[in-house]
Amino acid sequence: MFDGVKKHQVTLPCQPEPWDIRNLLQWIKENLLKERPELFMQGESVRPGILVLINDADWELMGELDYKLQDQDTVHFISTLHGG
Amino acid sequence: MGTWGPGGCGPHHVLGLCSYSNCFREYFVHKFRAMLGKNRIIFPGEKVLLAVSGGPASSAMLRQVQEGLSRETAKRLRFIPSVIYVDEGAVRGQSPAQREQSLACMETLLQATGFPYYLVHLEQLPASILRPGPTTPSEPNVSYKEAVEGFIQQQRQKGYGDQDSGTSLPGPGNGESPEGPPSAPRLPAAALTQELLKLFGAVQTLTAKEELLQMLRIHLILHTARTKGYTKVMTGETCTRVAIKLLTNLALGRGAFLAVDTGFKDDRHGDVMVVRPLREYMAKEIAFYNHYFNVPTVIAPPLPTKRRDKPSFRHIVENFLLGLQKDFPSTISTVYRTGEKMSADHAKPSCESQRCLLCLCALDLDGGEWGGLWGGIRRLGAL
Fold it and tell me: Do residues B152 and B78 lie in contact, with contact meaning Cβ atoms separated by under 8 Å?
């Protein structure tokens, strides 16, 4: 989905309001996702079954979509969906 | 399902991630041992074959067994594990080069565990395996202690001079067992691959393909277990998978067999029992565990399909349950716990001719016998 690349180190462009996960997902969708966005996204969030870890912690503890990204943050996406 | 992270562990979070992950690790390892301890099915010194696909759940299971064997005596697991990996690359649309690569990855991963292992190809499935093994006479209400004594006595009778055969690497065999020194894994003959692809090509829907693959895979694993002298096979279905399977199988008309298809123990195969020790772990717990403790995985590509939308029953049920789970976090555990109430009695055939060759359950020939199926639907409908 992401060209088979596991790790992306990205520098986000400057924008007036601070980056949060909601913007980040939208940015990923527009810039990194190569095919079939429906397998990754659902609405403005990730598809159920995909876990998000912000600096190794469950994003549910960090405010989910509203978490404000800091410099050097690491965000992991882990799929628990089953291929077949 | 709880939330995992440095803050999810009460007072620990002030101490930082390090002590948090220790806590999570202890919990995780304990749960595995407790599951086996509670069910008392695996005997000390028994040879157990771990079915590892390289996916997150079975890889976590492998790590649990490694952890369990390295503990101090009182807490140590006491069976003798080996690992089996089934290469399904042909039906998953992998090229020979990709298959070689997956196999090599898997082999490195398995070698690192130090357990004996078997790499088998789905093509190696002999036609003769479509029949159940001889049923071992087992009295139903025997206590664990008596069962263990019986097991040890059986082992003695067999004259277990080859005690070490389970702990050392299996010798060079007929292509099923790995060679001692690492060498490039060999793929089966192209003609066999063609046969297999023809079989899968004849199956129309992805739902049926998934079912067929699942059944052939377990037959091959059981066949290997049987020929190599294993009496238990462990598979890595998580709570999430079990819940999805419960509803999928209901939709497929397998309601009467829910208990054997999803229960902790599956003894329909006679001589070899399938055990599912990860049934109480959520897929989320597994994912976090693997992430924190660097459990290596090898991801197999999904079965190829032309349909993008709603490719199979299982996909639809998975989407449905995970979508619900997001807003109602006890969905999956509720479905799982409802499945716990199923009885395995309906799966037992009254005689051999009444048994399905593929799934080895009783053929449901009398239209009037809706008991198992309806019971299942009513119970799940009452959620």
Answer: no
Q: What integer is the mean pLDDT of B341-351?
A: 81
Token pair recorded at residue B311: 């490719």
Nearest residue, CB atoms, B322 vs list A48, A61, A84: A48
Q: What is the mean pLDDT of residues B160-168?
A: 41
Distance of CA A21 to CAs A6, A18, A52, B113, B297, Å?
19, 10, 10, 38, 27
Query: For residue B42, how many C-alpha atoms fall within 13 Å in the half-sphere facing its CB?
Result: 29
Query: pLDDT tens, B238-292?
Result: 999 999 999 999 999 998 899 999 999 999 888 899 999 999 999 999 999 999 9
**Rama region for B136: left / alpha / beta (φ>0; ψ in -120 to 50; rest):** beta
Contact A21, A67 (CB under 8 A): yes
Distance CA A81, CA B319 (A): 9
Which residues share a beta bridge with B51? B84
Give the DSSP H/E element, type plus range, for residue B83.
strand B80-87
Least confident of B52-61, B154-163, B318-327: B154-163
Among B300, B314, B326, the residue with its CB nearest the CB of A48 is B326
Rg (C-alpha) for chain A, rounded Å, is 13
User: Which of B99, B376, B379, B163 lies closest to B260, judged by CA?
Assistant: B376
N-to-C CA span, chain A: 17
Domain ranges of chain A: 21-79
Pair of tokens at residue B343: 């009885």
Instruction: Kindly tell me if the per-residue pLDDT of B5 is higher than 70.
Output: no
d(CA B254, CA B241): 16
Chain B residues within 8 A of A36 when measuring between CB atoms: 308
Contacts of B5 in chain A (CB under 8 A): 53, 56-58, 60-62
**pLDDT tens column, A2-35:** 767 788 888 888 888 889 999 999 999 999 888 8
Place of tokens 């109430």: B341
- Are A58 and B323 in contact (CB < 8 Å)? no
Q: Give the CATH class of A21-79.
A: alpha beta
Q: Indicate the pairing of strand B265-266 with strand B117-121.
A: unpaired
In this structure, what DSSP letter does residue A68 have?
Answer: B
> Complex ipTM, two decimals?
0.91
Do residues A24 and A70 make contact, with C-beta atoms less than 8 angstroms apart?
no
